[in-house]
Amino acid sequence: MSQTTNSTFYQLALQQCVSVQSKLMQQHTLSNGEKVWVRLAGKRNSIWRYRLLKIAQKISGIHMLQPVPNLGGVSSLRTEVKRLQELAQANICVPKVLAQEPNATMISNIGEHNLEKEWWECHEDPQTLLQRWRLGLRAIVHVHQQQQYLSESFARNMIFINDQQIGFIDFEDDPLTAMPLTQCHARDLLCYLHSGAQLMNQFGISIEAQQSWHQIIAEQPASTQSIIQNSLRKIRWMRRFTAEFYGKDTLKLAAMANFN
Prior knowledge:
By secondary structure, this protein is α+β, with helices and mostly antiparallel strands. The protein has ten helices and six strands. The strands form two sheets. It has a four-stranded antiparallel sheet. Strands 5-6 form a two-stranded antiparallel ribbon. Helix 6 (126-145) packs parallel to helix 8, helix 7 crosses helix 9 (222-233) and helix 7 crosses helix 10.
């Protein structure tokens, strides 16, 4: 199939998907058996989309966890296409943009098994779990080494492809429009820590995970290290908040505090 024919196929497929789609983001299986994702332009969605970061930032006072402004709708679609193309050009594993309409975008499916699910599935094997934790950290650092950055680098937005590779999804906002690149890099690592610190503690490898974290942070530029250390210093007082009644949002921050 030629590139032109291929492009026409996806464009027609996008139109068909849009005509039957009921959700803003939905997976479809095309006539050739390929699985794809179609995102529709919707209303401004920052209220629900950034609840996690808003709560974390409010409780902790960590500026790096402040949600990046997102207007939603067509603007959000354009941002995602732009970021996916920039990351792909830097040889980062992200979905491929297959087709576009003014109010919809079709992207490839790079996998359905995110890193958080992988952690849960291998949590009874400490060595494998620790390897998966390190894999996520190294994947983020690799992005930074290409002078790129992510959006919300939670484990649920990181696709586990194999024990050597992680892919990234969800780029509806662009942190570089709100902060310098160094802060974007620090934010990526802090988001990852926020999504995994409590689980590593729950699964019994907190000490080993902390050692891996410190090793990787020590390899980062001094400016990035400083931002991360100053951010975590703000929540050192939360270390003792380990009781269930504090709620999951506080417990996640308390677990992060132990990585300082």
